[in-house]
Amino acid sequence: MHSTSSTFGGRLFAPGLDGVGVPATGQWRQGRLVVWVQDGATGPEWLAPEHPTLSAGGFNAAQLSVAWPVDGGQVQFFVDAGAARSAFAAGMPTSLATPHGAAQRAARGVARRFQLWWAVLAAVALLPVLALALLVLRGGDVVDWAVRQIPHAQEARLGDLVLAQTRAQMRVIDSGPAVDAVKHMGERLTPGTLHRYRWLVVDKNEMNAFAAPGGVVVVYSGLLKGTDTPEEAAGVIAHEVAHAELRHGLQGMVKSMGLRAGAAVLLGDWSGAVLSDATTGLLEMKFSREAETEADAEGLRRMVAAKINPAGMVRFMDKLAAQSQGATPPALLSTHPASSERAAQLRALAAQHPGPWEPLALDWAKVKASLP
């Protein structure tokens, strides 16, 4: 019978045993480790030499490996963690203290690495939750940060996609007095811009206009024909330029399509379905009240800086506010909701700037007559 004093459990690998190891018991006898299979109290014993190899073992190094060579192979005994490991250390001869300490340090290092990896995995798993929380609690700040990471050159490529869609869906007027007039007004309103503007006039009788990210401004022929002076048209163009300069379209895309859309633009993933959906939505994007107010103020500021009378912008807003009461309001109101409140705010801002103004040198009757 084997003595049960100072014994410790583990798993034994040795020639002739099952390849996955078998439960075994170890014991120190006169400074030597003796190991036997647990289900055979009178079975064979494996006697370790005075200086077996000690190392951290097991999947996460939580066990202690004691190994030594024998005829036909090697014996390896994995001492269980916890009480078994303590009993092993209590009866161990002092000559094994150094390798045992090294094995302990290695085990602690592996344990720390496992803790780090689990922390990383937990963080990765929590990222969607954290991102959602950020969007809920600080949605505006997150979107603004994402938009700031996107270079203007990448934004311009997004504008190219919208430009291609516009050409595919509408008849673009490529030359003539209307195109020259829109470009002339637009360039006066965008000194020192970081965008490469593309000014388009499309043959559609709706009173509408829109700006896409990257400096694409599309003006409908119906809007030009619905204005009485070039200053009124300049007010609309100034408002659309303000949307482009303030990057409202890009912000709206990230808000509506999520941060994946912003990442796709940043990384240049132009073939992805995310951007395909996003650019389609840009053609019909409806800005928030806050964005419209910002674009009004910035557009009027640009008109003043260009010495274009901002009263034209106010008059056009008055027209929209009046027509919004009709049965068929202008198409522009579907994406740029008008209100008497906005008109009043613009009138108050314009009153702060008495001029003098430089009239736009455009034959507006000729411009309108040139349209289909």
Describe the structure.
By secondary structure, the chain is an alpha+beta fold. It folds into two domains: 7-108, PH-domain like (Roll), CATH 2.30.29; 152-369, no CATH class. It contains 14 helices and eleven strands. It is rod-shaped. The chain starts with 6 loop residues before the first strand and ends with a helix.
Summarize the model shown:
With 372 residues, the chain is of the alpha+beta class.
Number of separate helices: 14
User: What Rg is obtained from the alpha carbons, in whole angstroms?
Assistant: 39 Å
Q: Please trace the helix and strand order, writing H or E for each element.
A: EEEEEEEHHHEHEEEHHHHHHHHHH
Mean pLDDT: 82
Low-pLDDT stretches are 132-139, 261-275
Shape: rod-shaped
**What is the helical fraction, as a range of percent?**
40-55%
Number of strands: 11
User: How much of the polypeptide forms β-strand, as a percent range?
Assistant: 15-25%
Number of domains: 2
**Strand arrangement, major sheet:** 4-3-2-1-7-6-5
Largest sheet: 7 strands, antiparallel
Q: Determine the N-to-C terminus distance.
A: 110 Å
